[in-house]
């Protein structure tokens, strides 16, 4: 058992007969009344996100998890197949467990949290950013740069990303996996 003082991002807890991962939290100490902790919880079984407030000192039931490095192998329909980098054991996960499945490129290393009691995978943590090649982009219109103009581009995984007008087919771009937004062009 832990208390609200132990709450941190990424902590997995049992709450309302389900397993949740804490995405965001904020300790609040109002001038009047007791302190409390506002949290944003993501269900690891259904993927739903909910807001919850715990009073200060509230006991929470934590789950022991181990984090292992897995390599993404391939996708087959809604199933994504991964291989453990140390033991070479393979697992497959459903698409709805992943935060950004359309940005996963074959060979990408991800961190998978596994429940130590049941040996079931709980969540997949993507790298902060990923470098992908643009496979299709409309040509930029000259003189259309007075504002921060963007255009849609398709990357090698099939995802669509809004990019600046100077990005062309064949360019490699860095994408933020949390938001799916363009970060910068990568020169090699």
From TrEMBL:
The gene is efp. Residues 130-185 form the Elongation factor P C-terminal domain. The lineage of its organism: Bacteria, Pseudomonadati, Bacteroidota, Flavobacteriia, Flavobacteriales. The keyword Acetylation does not apply. Belongs to the elongation factor P family. SUPFAM superfamilies: Nucleic acid-binding proteins, Translation proteins SH3-like domain. This is Elongation factor P. Keywords: Cytoplasm, Elongation factor, Protein biosynthesis. Residues 67-122 form the Translation elongation factor P/YeiP central domain. Pathway: Protein biosynthesis; polypeptide chain elongation. One of its GO terms (cellular component) is cytosol. GO terms for molecular function: translation elongation factor activity.
